[in-house]
Write a structure and sequence with these properties.
This protein has three helices and two strands. By secondary structure, it is mainly alpha-helical. The chain has a domain of about 30 residues. Strands 1-2 form a two-stranded antiparallel ribbon. The chain is elongated and about 60 Å long.
Length: about 100
């Protein structure tokens, strides 16, 4: 005899949260030269700019507003404004500064 409560009823919250299985669409299926259907593997995420890395942080909205004001006054883009600030900080602490930093590359 089976234990009571060992099986969940079909309308249990656990089953309601179950993720549906992925069904491949026509766009996700390819055909090789012999006509055999093969799944198309998505490309790896592309690096935005070769040789660069993303550095990010969360700040209050006022910081972004101030950065936008500096951008408007100087005509520089945000990346160049941040590069200038980092270059100044590195210089203050006698840390080597990359020659590429802040040159728009």
């Amino acid at each position: 005899m089976a234990k009571q409560g060992s099986q969940l009823p079909p309308t249990s919250p656990t089953q309601a949260r179950a993720k549906p299985t992925h069904v491949m669409t026509a766009a996700e299926v390819g055909h090789n030269a012999s006509g055999v259907t093969t799944p198309v593997v998505p490309k790896a995420r592309q690096i935005h700019k070769a040789g660069e890395v993303n550095i990010s942080a969360y700040f209050p909205a006022e910081v972004k507003a101030s950065l936008r004001m500096v951008q408007a006054k100087t005509g520089c883009n945000i990346k160049d404004c941040l590069a200038e600030a980092l270059r100044d900080r590195f210089t203050k602490h006698n840390v080597p500064v990359s020659l590429k930093l802040g040159e728009g590359q």
